[in-house]
Amino acid sequence: MVNEQASLPIIDVSPLLDLNSHRDNQQETATEIHQACRSWGFFYVKNHGVPLKLQEELIKFSRKFFARPLEEKMQIDMNKGGRAWRGYFPVGNELTSGKPDGKEGIYFGTEINDINHPKVRNNTPLHGRNQFPSGKSDDDEFRQVILTYMTAMESLGRAIMSALARSLKLDPNFFDKNYFGEEPTCLFRIFNYPASFCQQQGNENLWGVGEHTDYGMLTLLLQDDIGGLQVKTSRNEWIQAPPVPNTFVCNIGDMLDRMTGGYYRSTPHRVRNLSTTRDRLSFPFFLDPNWDAEVLPIPMKGMTNINDDAEHRWDKSSVHTFHGTYGEYLLKKVSRVFPDLAQEQTINK
Ligand SMILES: O=C(O)CCC(=O)C(=O)O
Ligand SMILES: [Fe+2]
């Protein structure tokens, strides 16, 4: 059952982007973010400064890419991306909670061309060059749009995280200083949820993406006009997160849940494309801690922490008992989602 009445807040983030904006306005935005994180773990942002044209171009090029024949899409098959874990995967190849998802997609990360970059030299997983769509006359433009979009998302994400730091009574540069630095882990995905997938015989119990929480710090999601994203409230009810023009859906991930001792929770969500005629496109961008950052609880002034929640979580594992770097956490999680690739990693080690 989905509760159709409740709706997520829409927060105006323009005060965060304007250097001349009054401190009070920034504080007000931080307070709204605080309330949203406490109540939902999810919110929309508007007046975010990311050009509508850039969003439209991304959607247009992506739609054209997914309409290509499978053999063409497989030219940038993820299996060819090696340890960087980037490229295209076909419908059914990604698992959430052990079940295949009804979506295809392309994985991207920060583009590192420099073979002398320390993370490339020591063959660190999830680092390196992207596999961009190629072979069509406008693929160069598509590549440029993707890179421009990722840069825009990183800076919007940093701005939101500075307000979020303020909302926790921390220095606004807390996350930049302690977790992002010059090289946050930035992952970007383009997903296509084919029409009718979940309505097909045998697929009735499958989802576009099954219930899960996001692994990192902050997710910024652009979705097209189809809808299908659902969010689980603290009362265990599902609500819709429908498309709202020119906004991004933001949600907090496991690392923020861990850092705040559950004060800000990573909220479960899932997706089903209910359209029988149109594919659904979505574009999640994940702004996560630096690969080597050790993720530690934040000293929380005057805020009470709820702790262990393993029993109630979708994956029955606790984010609070984890010790180590973000890279270690992520690698463990990604290996579950792409078991074939994980196996390849072990063989290649
Ligand atoms: O497609 C969506 O709307 C959400 C995707 C998602 O939850 C994810 O990639 O973590
Ligand atoms: Fe997600």
TrEMBL record:
Gene Ontology terms for molecular function: metal ion binding; oxidoreductase activity
Name of the protein this chain belongs to: Fe2OG dioxygenase domain-containing protein
Annotated keywords: Iron, Metal-binding, Oxidoreductase
Family: Belongs to the iron/ascorbate-dependent oxidoreductase family.
Coiled coil: none
Keyword Glycoprotein: no
Alphabetical list of Pfam families matching this protein: 2OG-FeII_Oxy (PF03171), DIOX_N (PF14226)
Fe2OG dioxygenase domain ranges (all copies): 183-289
UniProt-listed InterPro entries: DIOX_N, IPNS-like_FE2OG_OXY, IPNS-like_sf, Iron_ascorbate_oxido_reductase, Oxoglu/Fe-dep_dioxygenase_dom
PANTHER family noted in UniProt: 2-OXOGLUTARATE (2OG) AND FE(II)-DEPENDENT OXYGENASE SUPERFAMILY PROTEIN-RELATED
Taxonomic source organism: Adineta ricciae
Superkingdom, taxonomy of origin: Eukaryota
